[in-house]
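Q: C-alpha coordinates for this one, please.
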Amino acid sequence: MILIVSFPDNAHVERVREHLARPATVFDIADFPHRTRLNVRFGPGADAMSFTPAGQPEIRLADIGAVWYRRVRPIGLDPALTDATNRLFAWSESTEALTGLWHALECFWMNPPAADEAGQRKIRQLQLARQVGLAIPDTLITNDPDQAAAFIDARPPEGVIRKAFRNIAEAPRSTATVTAADRGHIDDVRYAPVTFQAFVPADLDLRVIVVEDEIFAAAIRSEPEYRTDYRLGIGSAEFSPYRLPDDVASALLALHARLGLAYGASDFRVTPDGEHVFLEVNPGGEYLFASDRTGQPVPQAIAASLDRHDRQHTG
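A: Here is the predicted structure, written as C-alpha coordinates:
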Protein backbone atom coordinates (compact mmCIF):
# COMPACT_ATOMS: atom_id res chain seq x y z
CA MET A 1 0.00 0.00 0.00
CA ILE A 2 1.08 3.58 -0.70
CA LEU A 3 0.69 6.06 2.13
CA ILE A 4 0.30 9.70 1.09
CA VAL A 5 0.94 12.02 4.02
CA SER A 6 -0.69 15.28 2.97
CA PHE A 7 -4.07 16.98 3.32
CA PRO A 8 -7.47 17.04 1.55
CA ASP A 9 -8.08 19.07 -1.60
CA ASN A 10 -4.40 19.03 -2.60
CA ALA A 11 -4.49 19.27 -6.40
CA HIS A 12 -0.96 17.93 -6.76
CA VAL A 13 -1.82 14.83 -4.74
CA GLU A 14 -5.10 14.22 -6.55
CA ARG A 15 -3.40 14.44 -9.94
CA VAL A 16 -0.91 11.75 -8.92
CA ARG A 17 -3.62 9.52 -7.47
CA GLU A 18 -5.26 9.41 -10.91
CA HIS A 19 -2.23 7.52 -12.18
CA LEU A 20 -1.55 5.13 -9.28
CA ALA A 21 -1.99 1.44 -9.99
CA ARG A 22 -1.41 0.32 -6.39
CA PRO A 23 -3.78 0.88 -3.43
CA ALA A 24 -3.19 4.24 -1.76
CA THR A 25 -4.56 6.19 1.17
CA VAL A 26 -4.16 9.82 2.25
CA PHE A 27 -3.36 10.60 5.88
CA ASP A 28 -3.66 14.16 7.17
CA ILE A 29 -1.45 14.79 10.21
CA ALA A 30 -3.99 17.41 11.32
CA ASP A 31 -6.25 14.48 12.25
CA PHE A 32 -3.73 13.20 14.82
CA PRO A 33 -4.24 12.61 17.68
CA HIS A 34 -7.76 14.11 17.82
CA ARG A 35 -9.34 11.93 15.10
CA THR A 36 -6.75 9.18 14.65
CA ARG A 37 -6.01 6.23 16.91
CA LEU A 38 -2.40 5.02 17.18
CA ASN A 39 -1.49 1.56 18.47
CA VAL A 40 2.08 0.30 18.78
CA ARG A 41 2.64 -3.01 20.56
CA PHE A 42 5.94 -4.67 21.46
CA GLY A 43 5.60 -8.02 23.17
CA PRO A 44 5.79 -11.75 22.55
CA GLY A 45 6.00 -12.52 18.85
CA ALA A 46 6.08 -9.90 16.08
CA ASP A 47 5.79 -6.17 16.60
CA ALA A 48 2.40 -4.67 15.82
CA MET A 49 2.17 -1.04 14.68
CA SER A 50 -0.86 0.63 13.18
CA PHE A 51 -2.96 3.77 13.12
CA THR A 52 -6.61 4.30 12.26
CA PRO A 53 -7.66 7.70 10.88
CA ALA A 54 -11.27 8.73 11.43
CA GLY A 55 -13.59 7.10 8.93
CA GLN A 56 -10.85 4.91 7.43
CA PRO A 57 -9.80 1.29 7.93
CA GLU A 58 -6.82 0.46 10.11
CA ILE A 59 -3.46 1.10 8.42
CA ARG A 60 -0.76 -1.40 9.40
CA LEU A 61 2.84 -0.28 8.98
CA ALA A 62 3.76 -3.74 7.67
CA ASP A 63 1.46 -3.17 4.66
CA ILE A 64 3.05 0.13 3.60
CA GLY A 65 5.63 -0.12 0.84
CA ALA A 66 6.02 3.52 -0.20
CA VAL A 67 5.30 6.90 1.39
CA TRP A 68 4.78 10.24 -0.34
CA TYR A 69 5.33 12.91 2.31
CA ARG A 70 4.13 16.19 0.83
CA ARG A 71 3.36 19.53 2.49
CA VAL A 72 1.96 18.30 5.77
CA ARG A 73 -0.15 20.26 8.23
CA PRO A 74 0.48 20.59 11.99
CA ILE A 75 -0.92 17.93 14.31
CA GLY A 76 -4.44 18.58 15.61
CA LEU A 77 -5.16 18.44 19.31
CA ASP A 78 -8.61 17.86 20.76
CA PRO A 79 -10.31 21.27 21.20
CA ALA A 80 -11.60 20.07 24.57
CA LEU A 81 -8.03 20.25 25.82
CA THR A 82 -7.91 23.92 26.81
CA ASP A 83 -5.23 24.20 29.51
CA ALA A 84 -2.06 25.62 27.91
CA THR A 85 0.32 23.35 29.83
CA ASN A 86 -1.71 20.25 29.07
CA ARG A 87 -1.90 21.19 25.40
CA LEU A 88 1.87 21.65 25.27
CA PHE A 89 2.41 18.24 26.87
CA ALA A 90 -0.09 16.59 24.51
CA TRP A 91 1.56 18.25 21.51
CA SER A 92 5.02 17.11 22.65
CA GLU A 93 3.96 13.50 23.25
CA SER A 94 2.00 13.33 20.01
CA THR A 95 4.92 14.73 18.02
CA GLU A 96 7.33 12.23 19.56
CA ALA A 97 5.00 9.32 18.84
CA LEU A 98 4.36 10.32 15.24
CA THR A 99 8.04 10.97 14.55
CA GLY A 100 8.89 7.57 16.00
CA LEU A 101 6.26 5.99 13.77
CA TRP A 102 7.82 7.57 10.68
CA HIS A 103 11.26 6.27 11.62
CA ALA A 104 9.80 2.78 12.07
CA LEU A 105 8.56 2.76 8.47
CA GLU A 106 11.41 0.98 6.71
CA CYS A 107 10.31 1.58 3.13
CA PHE A 108 10.74 4.07 0.28
CA TRP A 109 10.01 7.71 1.13
CA MET A 110 9.43 10.65 -1.17
CA ASN A 111 10.93 12.40 0.81
CA PRO A 112 12.04 11.16 4.24
CA PRO A 113 10.83 13.76 6.78
CA ALA A 114 14.35 14.44 8.06
CA ALA A 115 15.66 14.94 4.51
CA ASP A 116 12.64 17.10 3.68
CA GLU A 117 13.36 19.28 6.69
CA ALA A 118 17.11 19.59 6.05
CA GLY A 119 16.59 20.02 2.32
CA GLN A 120 14.58 23.21 2.87
CA ARG A 121 17.53 24.97 4.52
CA LYS A 122 18.86 27.49 2.02
CA ILE A 123 22.32 27.74 3.58
CA ARG A 124 22.82 23.98 3.30
CA GLN A 125 21.45 23.97 -0.26
CA LEU A 126 23.89 26.61 -1.46
CA GLN A 127 26.81 24.97 0.35
CA LEU A 128 26.15 21.61 -1.32
CA ALA A 129 25.27 23.16 -4.70
CA ARG A 130 28.76 24.66 -4.87
CA GLN A 131 30.34 21.40 -3.79
CA VAL A 132 28.66 19.38 -6.56
CA GLY A 133 29.63 21.93 -9.21
CA LEU A 134 26.50 24.02 -9.72
CA ALA A 135 26.92 27.75 -10.33
CA ILE A 136 25.24 29.90 -7.67
CA PRO A 137 24.85 33.69 -7.29
CA ASP A 138 27.32 35.64 -5.18
CA THR A 139 25.48 35.55 -1.85
CA LEU A 140 25.57 37.18 1.57
CA ILE A 141 23.30 36.09 4.43
CA THR A 142 23.74 38.44 7.35
CA ASN A 143 22.27 40.47 10.19
CA ASP A 144 25.33 42.74 10.20
CA PRO A 145 24.36 46.14 8.68
CA ASP A 146 27.99 46.98 7.83
CA GLN A 147 28.48 43.75 5.89
CA ALA A 148 25.15 44.23 4.11
CA ALA A 149 26.02 47.81 3.14
CA ALA A 150 29.43 46.78 1.80
CA PHE A 151 27.88 43.98 -0.29
CA ILE A 152 25.33 46.36 -1.83
CA ASP A 153 27.76 49.24 -2.37
CA ALA A 154 30.24 47.01 -4.21
CA ARG A 155 27.71 46.51 -7.01
CA PRO A 156 25.95 48.81 -9.48
CA PRO A 157 22.50 50.25 -8.66
CA GLU A 158 19.82 47.54 -8.73
CA GLY A 159 22.58 44.96 -8.89
CA VAL A 160 21.49 43.16 -5.71
CA ILE A 161 18.30 41.34 -4.80
CA ARG A 162 16.96 40.51 -1.35
CA LYS A 163 14.91 37.51 -0.41
CA ALA A 164 13.41 35.77 2.61
CA PHE A 165 14.24 32.25 3.69
CA ARG A 166 10.54 31.42 3.75
CA ASN A 167 7.55 33.38 2.49
CA ILE A 168 5.12 33.11 5.42
CA ALA A 169 1.50 34.15 4.98
CA GLU A 170 1.51 36.49 7.97
CA ALA A 171 4.47 38.50 6.65
CA PRO A 172 4.84 37.89 2.91
CA ARG A 173 8.07 38.99 1.27
CA SER A 174 8.67 38.60 -2.46
CA THR A 175 12.14 38.52 -3.97
CA ALA A 176 12.93 42.12 -4.96
CA THR A 177 15.71 44.39 -6.13
CA VAL A 178 17.45 46.37 -3.37
CA THR A 179 16.57 50.02 -3.99
CA ALA A 180 18.08 53.25 -2.73
CA ALA A 181 15.23 53.39 -0.20
CA ASP A 182 16.14 49.92 1.03
CA ARG A 183 19.77 51.01 1.34
CA GLY A 184 18.62 53.87 3.55
CA HIS A 185 17.10 51.36 6.00
CA ILE A 186 20.10 49.04 6.06
CA ASP A 187 20.34 49.21 9.87
CA ASP A 188 17.08 47.21 10.04
CA VAL A 189 19.09 44.16 8.99
CA ARG A 190 20.07 43.80 12.64
CA TYR A 191 16.56 42.58 13.48
CA ALA A 192 16.82 39.37 11.43
CA PRO A 193 19.20 37.85 8.87
CA VAL A 194 18.56 38.84 5.26
CA THR A 195 19.67 37.00 2.14
CA PHE A 196 21.35 39.30 -0.40
CA GLN A 197 22.42 38.01 -3.80
CA ALA A 198 24.00 39.54 -6.84
CA PHE A 199 21.28 39.98 -9.46
CA VAL A 200 21.58 37.34 -12.18
CA PRO A 201 20.41 38.66 -15.56
CA ALA A 202 18.53 35.98 -17.45
CA ASP A 203 17.23 35.07 -20.86
CA LEU A 204 15.15 32.33 -19.22
CA ASP A 205 14.03 31.10 -15.84
CA LEU A 206 13.80 27.35 -15.33
CA ARG A 207 11.59 25.23 -13.10
CA VAL A 208 13.29 21.86 -12.84
CA ILE A 209 11.44 18.90 -11.30
CA VAL A 210 13.43 15.84 -10.26
CA VAL A 211 11.66 12.54 -9.56
CA GLU A 212 14.37 10.10 -8.46
CA ASP A 213 16.65 10.08 -11.54
CA GLU A 214 14.17 11.68 -13.98
CA ILE A 215 14.46 15.38 -14.78
CA PHE A 216 11.65 17.56 -16.16
CA ALA A 217 12.82 21.09 -16.93
CA ALA A 218 10.48 23.87 -18.03
CA ALA A 219 11.72 27.14 -19.54
CA ILE A 220 9.82 30.24 -18.41
CA ARG A 221 9.98 33.44 -20.42
CA SER A 222 8.43 36.28 -18.40
CA GLU A 223 7.48 39.87 -19.10
CA PRO A 224 10.34 42.34 -18.37
CA GLU A 225 8.68 43.66 -15.21
CA TYR A 226 8.98 40.20 -13.65
CA ARG A 227 12.70 39.86 -14.30
CA THR A 228 13.46 39.58 -10.57
CA ASP A 229 10.84 36.99 -9.60
CA TYR A 230 9.07 35.06 -12.35
CA ARG A 231 6.44 33.77 -9.91
CA LEU A 232 4.69 37.15 -9.91
CA GLY A 233 4.12 36.92 -13.66
CA ILE A 234 3.29 33.24 -14.14
CA GLY A 235 -0.06 34.03 -15.73
CA SER A 236 1.45 35.86 -18.71
CA ALA A 237 4.70 33.87 -19.00
CA GLU A 238 5.53 31.53 -21.87
CA PHE A 239 6.37 27.92 -20.90
CA SER A 240 8.17 25.30 -22.94
CA PRO A 241 10.03 22.01 -22.28
CA TYR A 242 13.77 22.44 -21.80
CA ARG A 243 16.76 20.11 -21.78
CA LEU A 244 19.41 20.77 -19.17
CA PRO A 245 23.03 20.43 -20.27
CA ASP A 246 24.42 17.07 -19.20
CA ASP A 247 26.88 18.53 -16.68
CA VAL A 248 24.17 20.63 -15.00
CA ALA A 249 21.78 17.66 -14.90
CA SER A 250 24.46 15.43 -13.34
CA ALA A 251 25.31 18.05 -10.74
CA LEU A 252 21.63 18.53 -9.86
CA LEU A 253 21.16 14.78 -9.36
CA ALA A 254 24.27 14.80 -7.19
CA LEU A 255 22.74 17.60 -5.10
CA HIS A 256 19.58 15.53 -4.62
CA ALA A 257 21.68 12.55 -3.56
CA ARG A 258 23.59 14.65 -1.01
CA LEU A 259 20.32 16.05 0.38
CA GLY A 260 18.61 12.64 0.35
CA LEU A 261 15.73 13.84 -1.82
CA ALA A 262 13.68 11.61 -4.11
CA TYR A 263 11.69 14.65 -5.25
CA GLY A 264 12.52 18.32 -5.54
CA ALA A 265 11.57 21.42 -7.53
CA SER A 266 14.53 23.67 -8.35
CA ASP A 267 14.76 27.16 -9.81
CA PHE A 268 17.57 28.12 -12.20
CA ARG A 269 18.33 31.17 -14.31
CA VAL A 270 19.95 30.92 -17.74
CA THR A 271 22.14 33.97 -18.32
CA PRO A 272 22.61 35.67 -21.71
CA ASP A 273 25.94 33.83 -22.10
CA GLY A 274 24.29 30.46 -21.41
CA GLU A 275 25.38 29.85 -17.82
CA HIS A 276 22.88 27.89 -15.72
CA VAL A 277 22.73 29.43 -12.24
CA PHE A 278 21.11 27.45 -9.43
CA LEU A 279 18.90 29.51 -7.10
CA GLU A 280 17.20 27.02 -4.78
CA VAL A 281 15.47 23.65 -4.42
CA ASN A 282 12.11 23.14 -2.73
CA PRO A 283 11.63 19.54 -1.49
CA GLY A 284 7.84 19.99 -1.62
CA GLY A 285 7.71 22.44 -4.50
CA GLU A 286 4.77 22.70 -6.87
CA TYR A 287 4.94 21.25 -10.36
CA LEU A 288 1.47 21.56 -11.91
CA PHE A 289 1.93 25.17 -13.03
CA ALA A 290 4.83 23.98 -15.19
CA SER A 291 3.82 20.44 -16.18
CA ASP A 292 0.30 21.46 -17.22
CA ARG A 293 1.69 24.07 -19.62
CA THR A 294 4.49 21.95 -21.05
CA GLY A 295 2.74 18.57 -21.16
CA GLN A 296 5.55 16.95 -19.20
CA PRO A 297 4.35 13.80 -17.36
CA VAL A 298 5.42 14.74 -13.84
CA PRO A 299 2.32 13.28 -12.07
CA GLN A 300 2.80 10.05 -13.99
CA ALA A 301 6.47 9.88 -13.00
CA ILE A 302 5.67 10.35 -9.31
CA ALA A 303 2.94 7.71 -9.48
CA ALA A 304 5.22 5.27 -11.31
CA SER A 305 7.93 5.73 -8.68
CA LEU A 306 5.55 5.10 -5.79
CA ASP A 307 3.97 2.09 -7.54
CA ARG A 308 7.36 0.57 -8.31
CA HIS A 309 8.70 0.87 -4.78
CA ASP A 310 5.48 -0.37 -3.21
CA ARG A 311 5.51 -3.39 -5.50
CA GLN A 312 9.15 -4.13 -4.73
CA HIS A 313 8.61 -3.81 -0.97
CA THR A 314 5.33 -5.66 -0.50
CA GLY A 315 5.17 -7.90 -3.55
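A few notes: The longest strand covers residues 204-211. The mean pLDDT is 92.
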